[in-house]
Amino acid sequence: MSRIGDPAPTPAVDGWERHGWMLSAIWLVFLGYTIAALLQDGLGAGQLVLGLALVILYAGVYLAGFIFGNRLDSEARWVKWNPVGLVLMLAIVAGMAAIIGLDALYMTPFLIAYACFLLPRPAAWCVGLGTVATTLLLSGLTGTLPDYVFIVAIQVGIFVLNMVTFALIQAGERSEKMQSDLALASERERLARDVHDVLGHTLTVVAVKAELAERLIDGDPERSRTEIVEIRALVRGALADVRATVGGLRGNDLSTQLAALRVTLDGAGVAVDVEGEHAGQVPDRLRDPLGWLVREAGTNVLRHARATRCVIRFSPGSLVIEDDGVGLGSSAAGNGMCGMSERMAEAGASFHVGAASLGGTRVEAAW
């Protein structure tokens, strides 16, 4: 888990961005139709060599686009040169047409594949539909449509397949980005919740002890000095807790929180009774969430309840915390209450807040 302030990790290279050109290279085998046309036309040595050189150059430009100018990698330096590559391929097809005539149409499916993956969508549509229309027009005007109808079928198939494939790849990337954004938002919520719970509890205790020290400063200066020393220790502990929480390393053991709550409430004049034993009754997966619950519920008792007694009751499958204070009344749920509810839901436990039999507030978690 990264921490705030750490440098951003280098994005992992997607498999398609690294190896996608290999899939494109496989289809170059169909340039064999063009090579066969060169060999069968009875060309002179010079034209044959020139034609083969054009085929090799055509394949090189095609592959260079997929290797260096992959539009799925928005940071690729060569993306802006993709239209230039398409123009070069068109020029090569035109040059090949001067040598072998309409058989140069055998090279056109590669234009469509190039456009579908390496050019913006409007350009891909124009190239795909324009290539099919041009093939139909030229073969129709020369009366050779039956000879090239299979090329039209290949063009249409490649256009549809590549457009759908590219759309699916983009949809997958958007889905991954959404998942990443959701994970980041969830982590931010967790961090905010943890910091609230840590600081809310500690600052409440500090406030209570500061008021006590103020009342004792004249009548019992030694006790007041002791309270101030404890306040200083609490503040230092809170700083350490915040650092650990931000780093994602902080635990919140249930036993520790029970002991801390007893000391805190006792110091504020609130009697604490723990009924039942949590050992053996609380599943391991719930010890940390219930530690947070005990901490937050105790903070609420200390801060809002004006209670004199707090009862913590363990039973098989549940934990109940009650006080004899003023109760919730019409108060809306605050961040702490929402945080408790979220933690219990994440741990697979139910959470309920209501009126207590003692007269105050009852907080219950059940699993």
What are the key terms here?
Heat Shock Protein 90; 2 domains; 11 helices; 367 residues; alpha+beta
What does this structure look like?
67% of the residues lie in helices and 8% in strands. Helix 7 (145-219) runs antiparallel to helix 8 and helix 10 (284-305) packs antiparallel against helix 11. The protein has eleven helices and five strands. 29% of the residues are buried. A hairpin with a 5-residue loop joins strand 4 and strand 5. The two termini are 29 Å apart. Strands 1-2-3-5-4 form a five-stranded mixed sheet. It is α+β, with helices and mostly antiparallel strands and 367 residues long. It folds into two domains: 15-179, no CATH class; 254-367, Histidine kinase-like ATPase, C-terminal domain (Heat Shock Protein 90, 2-Layer Sandwich), CATH 3.30.565.
Strand-helix topology:
Blueprint (H helix, E strand, L loop, with lengths): L14 H12 L5 H9 L4 H24 L13 H19 L7 H11 L2 H21 L3 H75 L1 H26 L7 H14 L3 E5 L8 H22 L3 E7 L2 E6 L11 H12 L3 E6 L5 E6 L1
Parallel strand pairs: 1-2
Antiparallel strand pairs: 2-3, 3-5, 4-5
